[in-house]
Design a protein that fits this description.
By secondary structure, the chain is mainly α. The protein is built from 18 helices and two strands. A two-stranded antiparallel ribbon has the order 1-2. The radius of gyration is 27 Å and the shape is globular.
Length: about 325
């Protein structure tokens, strides 16, 4: 009977062919998953978190197309189409908000993106391992400072009476500067404080990629007489090019995603003309003024613009290089 069953199975494999192979692969995958159930159990909580807090709330974007009423609820409110989008895009103050958001995002990208690359290359060239570890620790530590503490440090350092920067300026006979009160200084203060806080952390990815560069390749370049700059240009940079492209795609896609907390804490009535971005605008309109539909429309507009930027840059990267997100 066993031989007969084996013969039948062999005949099924011959006649069924690929479908049976697909079923066999599925069974093999299930058996492998059961043997590694601890790994999938660890992934379960993050998966549930993303579904509950990222995907399920996406149903609420329908509020952007309705005149939301608390008494009627989301689905019972009147449908108004693109009314809130038109209202937002036709308002002069809204255009200023879009421009401020775009300006901060582009400034952060241009000034902040190359710094971790340069820092990683510089650290990779350091021969003294103790000095290298000290520099890594000093540049990496600010990343763990919370946003509230970070803004508090900015306020203390730039204070007109007790701030160290203004004290140094006064030593050289200069008048104190109201950094947080000058709208023209707000973008630089926001961007460069962010670079100081995140450069060391962002450089870790590039340092990990540089650690995989072949030592034999470096030694061959030295034997051929290549200078340090030439070795960086022709060996190190090509080695981290995939990481540079991927992170550039993500950074361009997040140009419009200026963080709410830091901008809001640094914001005041004097720098409002440059510090009002979409995130703070949505907060004030949606929560403070309770105009939920309009704020949802503004937030959806911001997300769509970021998505378009991400798709566009990924398409360009795929067209002109062999690296892309998908």
């Amino acid at each position: 009977m066993a031989k007969t069953n084996a013969g039948i199975i062999e005949q099924e494999e011959v006649f069924l062919g690929e479908p049976l192979d697909r079923k066999a692969r599925l069974r093999k995958t299930c058996r492998k998953a059961l043997t590694q159930w601890q790994f999938y159990l660890m992934l379960l909580l993050p998966f549930i978190y993303v579904i509950v807090f990222s995907y399920i709330p996406m149903g609420g974007i329908v509020m952007a197309f309705k005149d939301y009423s608390v008494s009627k609820g989301i689905w019972g409110s009147d449908w108004v189409g693109f009314k809130h989008f038109i209202q937002f895009l036709s308002s002069p103050s809204s255009l200023d908000v879009i421009w401020n958001t775009l300006a901060l995002g582009v400034y952060s990208l241009i000034a902040g993106f190359p710094i971790p690359i340069l820092l990683a290359i510089a650290l990779n060239e350091v021969g003294n391992q103790r000095f290298k570890k000290v520099v890594q620790m000093v540049t990496y530590a600010p990343y763990f400072i919370s946003t509230v503490v970070m803004v508090g440090l900015i306020m203390q350092v730039t204070d007109m009476r007790t701030g160290i920067i203004n004290n140094i300026l006064q030593l050289f006979g200069q008048d104190p500067i109201n950094f947080l009160g000058d709208p023209d200084l707000f973008p630089s203060l926001y961007v460069w404080s962010g670079i100081w806080q995140t450069a060391g952390y962002s450089a870790i990815i590039y340092l990990a990629a540089l650690a995989g560069v072949s030592k034999e390749l470096q030694e061959a370049a030295i034997v051929d007489g290549a200078s340090r700059l030439k070795r960086i240009w022709h060996i190190d940079l090509p080695a981290i090019r995939p990481q540079i492209i991927i992170l550039l795609i993500f950074n361009v896609g997040s140009i419009m995603s200026i963080g709410f907390e830091k901008v809001y804490l640094m914001q005041n009535s004097m720098n409002m003309s440059k510090s009002e971005v979409i995130a703070t605008f949505v907060y004030k309109i949606g929560l403070v003024n309770a105009d939920y539909s309009f704020s949802t429309a503004v937030g959806l507009f911001n997300s769509v613009v970021g998505f378009i930027l991400l798709i566009s840059v990924n398409w360009l990267a795929k067209k002109f290089s062999d690296t892309s997100i998908w």
